[in-house]
User: What shape does this take?
Amino acid sequence: MKVIETERLVLRRLSVEDSPFILELLNDPSWLRFIGDKGVRTLKDAHAYIVNGPLDMYARLGFGLYLVELKSSQIPIGLCGLLKRDSLENVDIGFALLPEFRGQGYAYEAASAVMEYGRTVLGLEQIVAIASTDNKSSAKLLTKIGFKFKQVVRLVEDGEPIRLFTSDT
Assistant: This one.
């Protein structure tokens, strides 16, 4: 189901048919380094990730991570969307692209559209973002779409420190 359309991209809800793509993306070295190892090693694992993550969040909250695909070819290039984590007070934006699609403005285009969707369609008053302390690319993009660094936090007591960004929508 298409949720957002931009000049070059379509953001749509994930389905279990996207398992091969999810398997590839979640094992990309940048995903593993900056987002974390979700233990997705097989198509069955990818299927479970989709069902227990995005599909569950769509059912509970009406939003979640969306598959980002090129409008012209319907090739999946990444994920971008809104998440509600138990460890954060507010909804946060998340994004990740396969390496061959980085540096072409796609993440900016998708994230900007998701922020607009969150404000106008979902009526969210505040959206936050998190990024690993060493993820300079994500921090740069977050700043570009209007976020400001607030503080370093931990999502779990003994977890890695991460940077929290805020944006008044």
About this structure: The longest strand covers residues 76-83. The two ends are 25 Å apart (CA to CA).
